[in-house]
Amino acid sequence: MVAAWATGGAVRLRAQGPSPDAAGYALERMRYALNLDHDLAPFHAMFKSDRLLGPILRRRPWLRPSRIADPFQALAWAITEQLIEVERALAIQRRLTWRFGRRSACGTLVDSPSAQRIAGCAPAELQACDLSAGRSLALVLCGREVATGRVDLASPDHERGWQRLDRIREIGPWTLQKLAFHGQGRDDQLPAGDLAYIKLVGRLAGLGRRATVDEVTEWFEPYAPYQGLAGLYLVVGGHGLTAGKPPATVRGGYPVTRPLRAGARW
């Protein structure tokens, strides 16, 4: 169990566990979830003069991606969010947590289900929480892969685990990108299938329609190795930007306006 609070311009953390190692691991994961060690200086330095990102970086330099302390929770929640409304996905997550989640010794706190707990479920039990049949089976199979150690979500060799999970039906690039960005700290992984990015690129590229997933991926390539971070900043801070309405830029004392391009630096 970890407590975190802000005080005196700092963040303090306190962990309780059955052993010093368990408490230390809990502290490390909470530091990750709160982005306490997430250094964005290289990202800011690389794109501070970018025509799109530059103004947003100056206005909102504190933006950080949302992280999930438990990588398996990030994977499980990504599965529940596939192709449904956010409100319905949140309701499913609450049901899964209440029915299968881990409980504190005092019994008052409930956490997300562990891979071991999900691995022992029948798909029908997850369907009872309003998860579809196909995704219920996929979640159980993912739980078994993680619980048995065939997939180690904490290993630095993320790609190896992704390749194994990708063999499971209903698990595709979007789900793995959500796992990577939120649960494994991969700032280069952009969930290109998100409706927010599909609309964003369609607007910024002047397509007159929603972009395809491939078009979103290609549009963000100039921002490597920070495609995920670039997407976050543009979605949160890029309201009102269109292909015909670029941010104010001045060169040689004269305003410059031209269609927007990803990674266009001045």
Short description:
The protein has about 270 residues and is mainly α. The chain has helices at about 20-35, 40-45, 55-60, 70-80, 85-100, 115-120, 125, 135-145, 160-165, 175-185, 195-205, 215-220, 225-235, and strands at about 1-5, 10-15, 250, 255. A hairpin with a 2-residue loop joins strand 1 (about 1-5) and strand 2.
Describe the structure.
This protein is mainly alpha-helical and 266 residues long. It has helices at 20-33, 41-47, 53-59, 71-80, 86-100, 115-119, 123-127, 133-147, 158-165, 173-183, 195-204, 213-220, 227-237; strands spanning 2-7, 10-15, 249-251, 254-256. The strands form 2 sheets. It has a two-stranded antiparallel sheet. A two-stranded antiparallel ribbon has the order 3-4. The model is unreliable at 248-266 (pLDDT under 50).
Strand content: 5-15%
| Low-confidence runs of at least 5 consecutive residues | 248-266
State the order of secondary-structure elements, H for helix, E for strand.
EEHHHHHHHHHHHHHEE
Shape: globular
Query: How many strands?
Result: 4
Report Rg: 21 Å
Classify the secondary structure makeup into a structural class.
mainly alpha
Strand order of the largest sheet: 1-2
Largest sheet entry: 2 strands, antiparallel
Q: What's the mean pLDDT score?
A: 91
Number of helices: 13
Helix content: 40-55%
Taking the alpha carbons of the first and last residues, their distance comes to 48 Å
